[in-house]
Write a structure and sequence with these properties.
PyrdxlP-dep_Trfase_small; globular; binds 4'-deoxy-4'-aminopyridoxal-5'-phosphate; Aspartate Aminotransferase, domain 1; Aspartate Aminotransferase, domain 2; alpha/beta; 36% helix; 7-stranded mixed β-sheet; single chain; 357 residues
Length: 357
């Protein structure tokens, strides 16, 4: 069996043991004589599985009782629409830290006034801005932020304290570190980085926020439809949710989100150390204090050298190191399932490539 060192930005590496377990029980889930994708979403077997998935997630992230957990479809991009469709009455304040917050703000503009509470666009999204309370306009329904900027490689270290609802897109760092849930009213995360296969979004919604939702919107786009129907208003993405359950069990076996966070920090440090000690051979995109533990973005001196670097990486069994087309350069995504061994191999490769060039 060939397995690569997988530095893809998403969809991305999943824990090998989870993939093997899913493979082993694919034809016969828990002695039912059926695959999990062949059974009714209303069956006891499936309902139990989904309920256990929720319970485990609640335990691992210490999600308080007054928050609902829901599973939705349509990816992060549907959330760019849904959060505003439900909760934008007057105006929404956006902290613009990259492509994904920019997109969310543009999608939300269809439903009301949107404005930037803070933005680092003019500085090439190299850092996380400070949020000044005076920048928040009267009658702002919520403040929206992107926790980890997958493309530019920056990440909030601590979230801003605001006295209106805070919404967070945690798609690319969900489950990678503890989350101060009660600082938020709405959190969403597409699964395809740390949690499972593309096709499901996990939502965490404060109960009191639901009272503020618009009433005259389609059922399928209302958060409270998912809450009231325990995410089975229609057929949920059963395979994705099953897979999430397996990943959550794996997280638990690793010692929980706190332990995972520590490991992720050590993994990222291995690569940032190489960048910092390279005398400018590798140039990190993000300012040091805003650096992401999940996505490490860097440039080499010329596009030609970057091309050589990427070609050499492929020869060393490493994939996914090409930067996003909007930023260029290189990017190493070190999600939860990327092993220490893969990170050490990348660090060694980067050092030897520098020596050779
Ligand atoms: N938010 C973030 C932080 C992302 O990285 C992405 C894409 N990877 C999205 C939203 C969009 O997600 P999707 O492709 O599921 O619509």
């Amino acid at each position: 069996m060939k397995r690569v060192h997988n530095f893809n930005a998403g969809p991305s590496a999943m824990p090998l043991s989870v993939l093997q377990e899913v493979q082993a029980e694919f034809l016969d889930y828990a002695g039912t004589g059926m695959s999990v994708i062949e059974m009714s979403h209303r069956s006891d077997s499936y309902q139990t599985l989904q309920a256990e998935t929720e319970t485990l997630l609640r335990d691992l992230l210490h999600i308080p009782k007054d928050y609902h957990i829901v599973f939705m479809q349509g990816g992060g991009s549907m959330q760019f629409v849904m959060h505003a469709l439900n909760f934008l009455h007057c105006r929404g304040g956006y902290i613009n830290t990259g492509v994904w917050s920019d997109k969310a703000m543009k999608a939300a503009a269809a439903f009301g006034e949107v404005y930037e509470v803070a933005s680092t666009k003019a500085e090439g999204f190299t850092h996380i801005p400070r949020v000044l309370p005076q920048a928040i306009k009267a009658q702002t329904d919520y403040i929206y932020l992107t926790s980890n900027n997958t493309i530019h490689g920056t990440q909030w270290q601590t979230y801003p304290q605001v006295d209106i609802p805070l919404f967070g897109d945690l798609s690319s760092d969900f489950l990678s570190r503890p989350i101060p849930i009660s600082q938020f009213d709405l959190i969403f995360a597409g699964a395809q980085k740390n949690i499972g296969p593309a096709g499901v979004v996990v939502g965490i919604i404060k109960d009191t926020l639901l009272d503020k939702a618009k009433r005259d919107i389609p059922d399928m786009l209302r958060y409270d439809t998912y809450v009231k129907h325990h995410s089975v208003y229609n057929t949920p993405p059963v395979f994705c949710i099953y897979f999430i359950y397996k990943v959550l069990q794996w997280v638990q076996q690793q010692g929980g989100v706190e332990k995972i966070a520590q490991r992720n920090k050590e993994k990222a440090d291995m690569i940032y150390e190489v960048i910092d000690q390279s005398n400018g051979f590798y140039r990190g995109h993000a300012d040091i204090q805003s650096r992401s533990v999940m996505n490490i973005t860097f440039h080499l001196a010329t596009p030609e050298l970057e091309k050589m670097f990427l070609q050499a990486s492929l020869q060393n069994n490493m994939i996914g190191l090409k930067g996003h087309r909007l930023l260029g350069g290189c990017r190493a995504s070190l999600y939860n399932a990327v092993t220490e061994e893969s990170c050490a191999s990348l660090a060694t490769f980067m050092k030897s490539f520098q020596q050779a060039h």
